[in-house]
Amino acid sequence: MTRLLIVESPTKAKTITKILGPAYKVVSSFGHIRDLPERKMGVDFKNGFKPEYVVPTDKKEKVATLKAAAEHATEIYLATDADREGEAIAWHIAEILHLKPEEIHRIAFHEITKHAIEEALKHPGKLEMDLVDAQQTRRVLDRIVGYELSPFLWKKIRRGLSAGRVQSVAVRLIVERERERLAFNQEEYWSIDGMFSKEGKEFDAHLVEHAGKKIDKLDIKDAATANAIVEKLKASSFAVKSVEMKEMQKKPPTPLTTSSLQQESNHRLHYTAKQTMMLAQKLYETGRITYMRTDSLNLAEKFLGEAQAFLSSAYGPTYAKGAVAYKTKSKGAQEAHEAIRPTDASATPESLKGELEADQWKLYDLVWRRTLASQMPSAILEKITVDMAGGDGVMRANGSSIKFDGFMKIYRGAKETFLPLMKKGDDVEVKEIIPNQHFTEPPARYSDATLVKTLEEFEIGRPSTYAPTISTIIDRGYIERDEHQKLYPTDTAMTVTDLLVKHFPDIVDMDFTANMEKTLDKIAEGKEESAPALEKFYTPFHKNLLEKTKEVTHEEVMPTKELGVDPKTGLTIFLRTGRFGPYLQLGEWSEEDRKAKLNKPKSVSIPKTISPEAVTLDQATALLSLPREVGVYEGKPITVQYGPYGAYLKSAKINATLPEPFDPLTISNEDAERIFAEAAKLKKAGGSGSIIKSFEKNEKTGKEITVKTGKFGPYVTDGKINASVPAGTDPATITEEEALTLIKEKKPFRKFKKSTKKTEE
To answer: Cα(23)–Cα(25) distance, rounded to whole angstroms?
Structure first.
């Protein structure tokens, strides 16, 4: 008798095979095996928005493998993930294998352990079609938005753009935050800080009161006022005015959900949401943690008992306060699901140090500590505030100590700041009092953590969508990361957002999107049907789209802007937007000449470092002065130019990318000649694409890294991402670690396709 168990992940299949042994044949579908067609809508609007599914080319071999395995199976178990996406994958498998309802054994578990899998096999169920309907509704909804709205953006802005139901809302949040920053008026303010000493022990303090008035953050506006206060305080002696001691309890953190895992991982480990979920997926599939897509705070009774036993044994009875059950606040959360936790409370991070890869270990360490901490007692802190009076000022020192560490024994948060023992009337020695200049800061850009938190607060998306949403808006060129890995919008994002807000407000409205998520929840709960929900959305959306397609013009959305007159030619400089984004044009170009492709005026793309909204006439004339000569190579001039893909050097038929931080407007002849000579040498040595050196397949990434020559100079590649070798670096000396760093810091190049394929989501 052959029992076939089908999962969606090969790693998951490998782990389950080890657990079940030869009694079961475990195979993977490698995710979805059917999807909507790529090059057409694939939705039958006349028959209740019925989706048309096809087997993608790259899945046909996998489908054949599944069918062959099913032919020899006496029992078939569908063990995909326990959420809407997993239920939909299981349904697609059942459809492809033509399984009758009585032949379907649907099992679900939230952790890949022997106990969980064996329990699931004892109680197989049927497919939950309400969950499948909810997933299909989301897929159809996103397909409609993507396939109908994206072509509108192509016509009104430029080709290659796309719109998505959840992604467009996330972009709007980032755009609005950036505009808040641009509109922010910076203010100067000063603080007065000091160093004091008591019996040889030094401590910090700051001014909180002056001339009988409390000092607020922005009260001291300039250096003159600050220096006058400091001079008076320096001339005074100080004594303790009051000592306040307050005991405080710090409660343990809650268990982790998908959202809080991404936030904590970003704060503590600096991982992006995408990195976090990839690592969590590996930990889940190898049986280390429970399922990582959840908004439940529930913990299994069995685990709670094991956790208390471990805490008592490892740290003593005072650290095992008794199992704590946390109540999930989210209305849509499913209490049958669990929070993200280790599958074994006693599997400490230290015990797995050699078994997990470094990044996986760090995330496991976070999950283990946070989960166990949630079952420990509160920490007891003692806060100490000492006010010291001198002259007409009062300086305050703050300290804290931990009386009982409680959960902080394994999940540290607060730091201790010790103060010397002091009582009212004690004299203190002034070591130093200085003024410090500050400036108010604009609202911070979103990080992965703060964006996920905001999306969750607005109830936009679900646990499974946070990381893909951020990845998608970055991959599509709407959002980029700054030097601190914070998210900021491109000019395209601002233009698209303005267009959607004005003409399709529902698509980027927080409440509308949140209500749509609630509708999907109702479908998953069997309280609402899919077709009426889609009809309610589609009818007004499609009508508005038809009207706006006729009403809105490209010039209205992307108006041509006159920047001024070029002093050299006397021609007007225009700021326009084209296929590759914003560019400058020198002189008029009539519609007749444009169509006939005659008398094309000089033009140049605007570098990403310059905002089109803020480009000046001086910057425009400097860019239009390109190309300029910047040296000589083998008797022929080298010119620096700027094209759709950035700055580059050119001489004869050889081009070389101008690497950062060199500026095409200021690069010296010496630097240009050196950079160009290196690129030309490599091109002559082997031609474009020749391999300079290669490394064996990297165990961590699973990719083979090579160093090659290219049209624009040497570069490193993992087969998907190409990153230029910095100028002045011998490509033959590049190490694998250096190559990986260059690839990690380089975003994938986005090609502009001429196909009619529409993008979605």
So the answer is: 7
Choose, from 24, 77, 291, 466, the residue flagged as catalytic: 291
By CB neighbour count within 10 A (0-12 exposed, 13-18 middle, 19+ buried), where does 673 fall?
middle
Catalytic residue list contains 189:
no
| pLDDT tens digits, one per residue of 172-223 | 999 999 999 999 999 999 999 999 999 999 999 999 999 999 999 999 999 9
CB 170 within 8 A of CB 509: no
CB atoms within 10 A of CB 457: 11
Q: Are 675 and 652 in contact (CB under 8 A)?
A: no
Distance CA(440)–CA(455), nearest Å, equals: 27
Residues listed for the chain: 761
- The residue ranges of the chain whose pLDDT is under 70 are 1, 329-336, 414, 579, 684-691, 697-702, 709, 711-712, 727-728, 730, 747-761
What pLDDT was estimated at residue 761? 43
Domain 259-373 of CATH type 1.10.290.10: yes
Distance between CA atoms of 427 and 435, rounded to whole angstroms?
Answer: 23
Q: Which helix (H) or strand (E) holds 510?
A: helix 510-524
Predicted TM-score of the model (pTM): 0.79
Question: Nearest-CA neighbor of 293 among 429, 475, 108, 128?
Answer: 108
Provide the pairing of β-strand 646-651 with 393-404.
unpaired
Cα dihedral sign, 94-97-102-107: negative
d(CA 171, CA 163): 10
- Within 13 Å of residue 478, how many CA atoms lie on the same side as its CB? 25
Q: Which of 115, 117, 125, 116 lies closest to 94 in space, CA to CA?
A: 125
Rounded Cα distance, 466 and 488, in Å: 17
Is 679 exposed, middle or buried (CB count within 10 Å of its CB: 0-12, 13-18, 19+)? buried
Q: Which amino acid is at 730?
A: D
**Candidates 3.40.640.10, 3.40.50.140, 3.40.50.2300, 1.20.1260.10; CATH matching 3-127:** 3.40.50.140
* Of the candidates 422, 372, 38, the residue with the CA atom closest to the CA atom of residue 198: 422
Q: Which CATH superfamily is domain 148-184+448-553 in?
A: Topoisomerase I, domain 2 (1.10.460.10)
Architecture per CATH, 188-251+379-439: Distorted Sandwich (2.70)
pLDDT digits (tens, 9 = 90+) for 257-313: 999 999 999 999 999 999 999 999 999 999 999 999 999 999 999 999 999 999 999
Q: How far apart are CA 370 and CA 709, in angstroms?
A: 48
Closest by CA position to 240, among listed 396, 383, 384, 382: 396
Distance of CA 733 to the CA centre of its chain: 33
DSSP character for 267?
Answer: I
